[in-house]
Design brief:
Elements (H helix, E strand, L loop, with lengths): L2 E6 L5 H14 L4 E5 L4 H7 L5 H10 L1 E4 L13 H8 L4 E7 L12 E7 L9 E5 L2 E4 L5 H17 L4 E6 L7 H14 L5 E6 H11 L5 E4 L1 H15 L8 E3 L4 E4 L17 H13 L3 H16 L13 H14 L1
Parallel strand pairs: 1-2, 1-3, 3-12, 5-10, 8-9, 8-10
Antiparallel strand pairs: 4-5, 4-11, 6-7, 11-12
Helix pairs in contact: 1-9, 1-11, 5-6, 7-8, 9-10, 10-11
Bound molecules: nicotinamide-adenine-dinucleotide.
The site of nicotinamide-adenine-dinucleotide has 21 residues, from loops.
Keywords: Oxidoreductase
Pfam families: Iso_dh
Organism: Labilithrix luteola
Length: 334
């Protein structure tokens, strides 16, 4: 039976990497009816909104979406589509596996961290005001409900995926109330999961640990802002933004998207690395219980990288199309 999935190609390199990902899913033999929806800067000019109502309705209806990056026009009064989607659909857990791939020189061999980032509140709630001319205030909103929910997700994920340790990343030594709430919730949830080792680290120390020896980390659970920064740091450790995937998980729906943005500097040049969105699609296939097709793509990616076919961001010479063709061929033989 075919899955009906919302596809939001997005802006910049989005349509290029989305097209590559569709081809790869087809090569893996998954039957998908794509419900293609436009959102982002291009739509804003035509429709006066970056997120037309039918896009949200489509994700609500199909429950699963694959999404390209979307740019937010700066200073034009548009809200970020990404933040709006996450809040409107209550996509509370942002899961970002940071893994090294063969043939790409990572800083550390065998890096395998999963960052579970709270996706709905913190400084991203967008609660900002000018108190007086020259003085701006941004509200960091943290609730016990969201902290407990994200910690439960991280421990459940660790158990489900056979992981050993969950580390909470915080700054409760300074933000005793807000980050203190995360720490308290983490400790309570940890007690219910005796098979998983709990660990605590302050965010600045975590950044240093990741750069010095990323392999000491397993699953990380953290707030929205720290998670955003640490996942880009993690991407840098394993070869850059071109390869790191992500999933936004909620109770009603899940939206799969790469960590990277619209990459305006390379958009339209046919050189974008589609691996990050392809790996996001692999996460989507696991979510849909299409494990055989997911493994086929994973094996195909390993073969393609082992053979040295790489896009320019990874020091290779393949364009998006050449890389995708090589991958589809490897999947065909997997
Ligand atoms: P970016 O991720 O778009 O680009 C950073 C650098 O990484 C650039 O040099 C780019 O060429 C490179 N890069 C990123 N993805 C790549 C890929 N797949 N292949 C090869 N190289 C790649 O970050 P930015 O420049 O800070 O942001 C650009 C726009 O994207 C902004 O409007 C931002 O708001 C938006 N953005 C959207 C999302 C999202 O939709 N989830 C996430 C981050 C940024």
């Amino acid at each position: 039976m075919a899955h009906t999935i919302t596809l939001i190609p997005g802006d910049g390199i989005g349509p290029e990497v989305a097209d590559a990902t569709r081809r790869v899913l087809e090569a893996a033999g998954v039957k998908i009816d794509w419900d293609v929806q436009e959102a982002g800067a291009a739509v804003a000019e035509k429709r006066g909104t970056t997120l037309p109502d039918e896009v949200l309705a489509s994700v609500r209806r199909n429950k699963v979406a694959l999404k390209g990056p979307i740019g937010t026009p700066i200073g034009k009064g548009f809200r970020s589509v990404n933040v709006t989607l996450r809040q409107a659909l209550d996509l509370y857990a942002n899961v970002r596996p940071v893994r090294s791939l063969p043939g790409i020189e990572p800083r550390f061999e065998g890096t395998d961290i999963v960052i579970v980032r709270e996706n709905t509140e913190d400084l991203y709630a967008g609660l900002e005001l000018m108190i007086m001319p020259g003085v701006a205030q941004s509200m960091k909103l943290i609730t016990e409900r969201a902290c407990t929910r994200i910690c439960e997700y991280a421990f459940d994920y660790a158990e489900r995926m056979g992981r050993k340790r969950v580390t909470v990343v915080h700054k409760a030594n300074i933000m005793k109330l807000s980050d203190g709430l995360l720490l308290e919730s983490f400790r309570k949830v940890a007690q219910k999961h005796p098979r998983i080792e709990p660990a605590e680290v302050i965010v600045d120390a975590c950044a240093m640990n990741m750069v010095r020896n990323a392999n000491k980390l397993d699953v990380i659970v953290t707030e929205n802002l720290y998670g955003d920064i640490l996942s880009d740091l993690g991407a840098g450790l394993v070869g850059g933004l071109g390869i790191v995937p992500g999933a936004n998980i909620g109770v009603e729906a899940a939206v799969f998207e790469a960590v990277h943005g619209t990459a305006p500097d390379i958009a339209g040049k046919g050189i974008a690395n589609p691996t990050a969105l392809i790996q996001s699609a692999v996460m989507m296939l696991h979510h849909l219980d299409e494990h055989t097709a997911a493994s086929k793509i994973e094996r195909g990616l390993l073969t393609t990288f082992e053979r040295g076919t790489r896009t320019t961001d990874l020091g290779g010479s393949a364009g998006t199309d050449e890389f995708t063709r090589a991958l589809c061929e490897a999947i065909g033989r997997a």
